[in-house]
Backbone:
């Protein structure tokens, strides 16, 4: 019992009553106004895996402050960030999530392109933050298998909860109202969440009932005209992270077009002075809006040149390597990645397509061969496309760096169900071809498509293998641009009809091909104008099969951006009906890759006049197979 003097009278007050009054006073005391930046500097801990582990300091990446504080501005409803990688946009999201768990508890959703990515984010980034930041760890219980308040995709805390969802899952976007919607990498979102429609719109619908709702979208951009984050950026305040010139005082954004490679400097847009990287980064910075009147939607753009974690020297090196690949191989993929993830800009196909070539241009390059095989050929492949009444066949020569020569393109007609046509095919592809000096060379690998009459093809592949011949059944897998050309091996069944029933009688092995990769390689190599790495040679000799129709069909497909089941993808579309020459090139290229030729050894053997693929016989030395490939 405690005595408290009130109005000159002694009054007995219970200790618990006094404690309650003190606690109530703390609760009713107006809380200290705090922005996300202030909360982050007070509580956030950078994990050991970050560039600079330890307590967060906003001055290290000052561009983050305005973005974070815009989120808690009562006037602002939408915040969009179009940026490069290595800027810390995911960390900005984590700081915001922590703020709305601890300081201003409310309901939240974290939306990523797929549910799998959301689970990974929860297990790594979110769980790490909760574990490292004391005030969060006290409010979110440790995960337990039977604790529904804290699962991988749902975490509850006093005053609110956070749901983690995937843009590919309509179910994860439904049901509960949510005030704050975080959306990361929106350019990788599918166009539709199943059959439900736009996942961005679906997520934002969850917040309709909140007058103080918040929508935060971040992403590196992708393709111009299709980029969701570019559309968001253009509809907002369009703010650029600008630096003040130390010489003339002009404010300007970091621009890679003004970077001088030799001196690792950037030219001022006004006074034209070349100023070094560190001099720029130590100057005054601020966000400058193209449309400051758009107060409810703050949109920001920043590129990797402004990052304190990346050196310009590394950025220049990355660009040079990507640009060299474009010039040398006409492969723009690395440059596309550079534009999107380093400069934070959309990719415009027409600006960096590497040029175009017509079938007439390709046909004009044809050269006369003095023999079956021109000098330079080190290895032969045969590609076979199975049609209803024929085999389309191409013999192609190869050298190091995949320089290649079309040798013969022909058709073998007959009934696929009868043995005669298969015998003709075997005879044709395993004949010897001659150089001008009389030396011979035979086919080292045959790739035959199994897409038509597969069981018949399997039987022939097995028969050839039993004879010791290098024949590979192949099956193309299209519309998967990230798949390598020679993707994987797989076993297939060979069947026979016995007493009217299909019975498995044997097995063989085929290769699954990422044909999009092969088509891209052909398109890029067709643009190479000088013999050497990747160059395509064709014969002008009559009777070789390389007529005008061949060249039209070789360039019969082109890569375009299309919606496939609601997702934007790069797909190949036909401009002409037939595309056998294109397929044959891809099959021959795959056969060459499967054999993994040791070019130095083969070159020496060809120079010595050795037909290393000659079938071994009495008194003849058997060819050997190296561990690294054919020798």
Residues:
């Amino acid at each position: 019992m405690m005595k408290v003097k009130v109005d000159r009278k002694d009054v007995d007050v219970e200790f618990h009553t006094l404690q309650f009054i003190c606690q109530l006073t703390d609760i009713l005391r107006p809380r200290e106004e705090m922005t996300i930046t202030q909360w982050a500097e007070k509580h956030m801990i950078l994990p050991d895996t970050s560039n600079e582990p330890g307590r967060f300091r906003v001055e290290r990446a000052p561009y983050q402050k305005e973005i974070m504080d815009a989120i808690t501005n009562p006037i602002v409803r939408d915040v969009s960030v179009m940026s490069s990688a290595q800027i810390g946009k995911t960390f900005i999201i984590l700081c915001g999530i922590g703020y709305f768990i601890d300081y201003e508890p409310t309901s939240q959703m974290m939306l990523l392109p797929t549910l799998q990515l959301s689970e990974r984010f929860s297990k790594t980034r979110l769980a790490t933050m909760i574990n490292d930041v004391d005030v969060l760890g006290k409010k979110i219980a440790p995960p337990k298998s039977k604790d529904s308040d804290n699962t991988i995709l749902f975490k509850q805390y006093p005053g609110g909860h956070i749901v983690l969802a995937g843009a590919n899952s309509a179910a994860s976007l439904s049901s509960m109202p949510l005030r704050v919607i975080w959306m990361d990498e929106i350019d990788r979102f599918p166009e539709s969440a199943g059959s439900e429609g736009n996942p961005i719109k679906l997520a934002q619908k969850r917040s309709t009932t909140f007058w103080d709702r918040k929508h935060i979208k971040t992403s590196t951009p992708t393709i111009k005209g299709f980029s969701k984050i570019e559309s968001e950026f253009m509809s907002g305040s369009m703010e650029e992270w600008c630096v003040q010139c130390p010489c003339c005082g002009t404010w300007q954004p970091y621009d890679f077009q003004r970077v001088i490679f030799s001196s690792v400097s950037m030219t001022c847009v006004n006074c034209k002075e070349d100023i070094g990287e560190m001099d720029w980064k130590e100057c005054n910075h601020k966000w400058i809006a193209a449309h400051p009147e758009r107060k409810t939607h703050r949109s920001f753009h920043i590129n990797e040149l402004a990052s304190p974690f990346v050196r310009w020297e590394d950025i220049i090196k990355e660009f040079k390597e990507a640009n060299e690949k474009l010039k040398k191989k006409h492969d723009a993929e690395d440059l596309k990645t550079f534009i999107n993830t380093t400069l934070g800009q959309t990719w415009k196909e027409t600006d960096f397509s590497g040029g175009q070539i017509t079938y007439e241009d390709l046909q004009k390059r044809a050269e006369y061969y003095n023999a079956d095989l021109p000098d330079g050929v080190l290895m032969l492949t045969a590609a076979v496309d199975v049609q209803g009444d024929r085999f389309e066949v191409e013999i192609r020569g190869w050298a190091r760096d995949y320089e290649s020569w079309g040798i013969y393109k022909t058709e073998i007609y007959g009934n696929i169900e009868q043995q005669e046509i298969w015998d003709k095919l075997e005879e044709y592809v395993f004949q010897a071809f001659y150089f001008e000096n009389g030396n011979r060379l035979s086919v080292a690998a045959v790739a035959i498509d199994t897409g038509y009459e597969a069981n018949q093809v399997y039987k022939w592949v097995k028969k050839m293998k039993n004879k010791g011949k290098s024949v590979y059944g192949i099956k193309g897998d299209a519309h998967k641009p990230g798949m390598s050309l020679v993707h994987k091996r797989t076993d297939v069944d060979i069947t026979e009809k016995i007493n009217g029933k299909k019975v498995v009688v044997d097995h063989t092995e085929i290769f699954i091909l990422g044909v999009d990769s092969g088509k891209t390689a052909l398109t890029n190599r067709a643009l190479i104008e000088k013999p050497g790495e990747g160059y395509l040679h064709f014969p002008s000799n009559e009777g070789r099969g390389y007529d005008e129709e061949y060249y039209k069909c070789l360039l019969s497909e082109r890569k375009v951006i299309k919606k496939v089941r609601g997702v934007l993808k790069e797909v190949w579309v036909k401009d002409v009906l037939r595309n056998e020459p294109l397929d044959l090139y891809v099959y021959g290229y795959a056969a060459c890759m499967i054999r993994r030729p040791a070019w130095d050894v083969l070159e020496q053997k060809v120079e010595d006049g050795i037909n290393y693929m000659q079938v071994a016989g009495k008194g003849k030395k058997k060819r050997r197979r190296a561990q690294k490939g054919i020798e």
